[in-house]
Amino acid sequence: MNCLSTPTIHKNRADDTGVSNMIEYVMVSGIIMVLFITMLLLVHANFIESPVRTITYSAFTDIGNGLSTRIVDVYAISPPNGTVTSNFDLPDYVVGNGYAVEISSGTKGQTVDISRDYIVARVALAGIGASKKGVAGGNTTGAGINRVSFDSRGFT
């Protein structure tokens, strides 16, 4: 009798090892998937969003410097009586999205503010921003042709 009962016990152990191997596989796979998803979220935030913010801010600063220079150039050649208008083109999109440009006055003079969502670049209105308050004003976007105008009579 002893010889016949041994294979039955051994067969039960083989079933248990198969189940334990499957449970081990499912648990290890589940832990690896959780770690993979966590890493995927962190990689996106640190390796994609951060460089996009940096590139966007740099592009906004470049656009602000170019627009500031354009405004100062128009102001520098402005006649005592008459108008000067300069048309120019800004990039339509920066990193695939639009943006807004505004000339604003602050305590330290006028600035060119370029913004989108939570990214804002403020560039001083070079040369005339601190010395002449309220010389420039207005807003635009990157889309289309933009215009800087000077009128000796002023704008209403």
A few lines on this structure:
The chain is α+β, with helices and mostly antiparallel strands. The chain is about 50% helix and about 25% strand.
Blueprint of the fold:
Blueprint: H1 2-76, E1 83-89, E2 100-106, E3 109-116, E4 119-124, E5 138-141, E6 145-151
Protein architecture, described:
Strands 4-3-2-5 form a 4-stranded antiparallel β-sheet, covered by helices on one side. The longest helix has 75 residues. It has one domain. The chain is an alpha+beta fold and 156 residues long. It contains 1 helix and 6 strands. The radius of gyration is 33 Å and the shape is rod-shaped. Helices cover 48% and strands 25% of the residues.
Alpha-beta content class: alpha+beta
Mean pLDDT: 84
Count up the domains.
Answer: 1
Distance between the termini: 111 Å
Number of strands: 6
Give the uncertain stretches in residue-range form.
none
Query: Roughly how many Å is the radius of gyration?
Result: 33 Å
Strand content: 25-35%
Major β-sheet annotation:
4 strands, antiparallel
> Tally the helices: what do you get?
1
Strand order of the largest sheet: 4-3-2-5
The ordered H/E elements are HEEEEEE
How much helicity do the residues have?
40-55%
Principal-axes geometry comes out as: rod-shaped
Keywords:
two-stranded antiparallel sheet, alpha+beta, single chain, 1 helix, four-stranded antiparallel beta sheet, about 160 residues
